[in-house]
Structure prediction request, 203 residues.
Amino acid sequence: MDTATVVFLMNCFLFASLIQSSPVPASGLPHSFVETVSQANTIVEKILNNLHAVHSATVSIQGLSLDSSPQTSHFQMMEMSMGIPASPVLKILSELFTLDMCVSRMSAGIQMYENILELLSQSLSGLEDVRTDLRDLLTHINKLKEVADVPDDGLDQNPSLDLASQLQDSYRVQVAVHLTLTQLRSFCYDLIRTFRVLSTYRP
Prediction:
């Protein structure tokens, strides 16, 4: 084998190696999608960091905090009787739980909590900052829907709430705030886990 052939084969090998080792995009979706996911994640982390302060400022029931819920069965019964809806379920992306479903459920959950907190804000102050962050977060999720061309699946983002009729006194208002913030915290953790998946998602 002559020298020219050897050099040619080596160049081919090096070229192929470079192609295989070249970095690929973190996501099969546009860069703007990944960037918006990162921005949305930052807002969710901000909400989580502020929830303890918001809870302390709005809930004065002794012994009740985000990390400790005495009389658990009692509050579970109150949660059911007051009609506080559960968070939309976020799952691992699959053929049965698509990107469209995922983003739509994120949007529905964020809108739901903003609606509940708006209602509770009529009875006490201290929730406006969280509501503002949720509205900002919803703007980013709507951008994700636009970038990924997610259709509207008809998921109800503004469920009928019976909660207003249940807020008869300060105690029940504070319990409703506690339950809502507790659920919101869990939903935020689900969002962060989902954002990790979306940042490396390949359709």
Observations:
- The mean pLDDT is 82.
- Helices lie at 3-21, 31-58, 72-82, 99-121, 128-147, 170-198.
- The two ends are 46 Å apart (CA to CA).
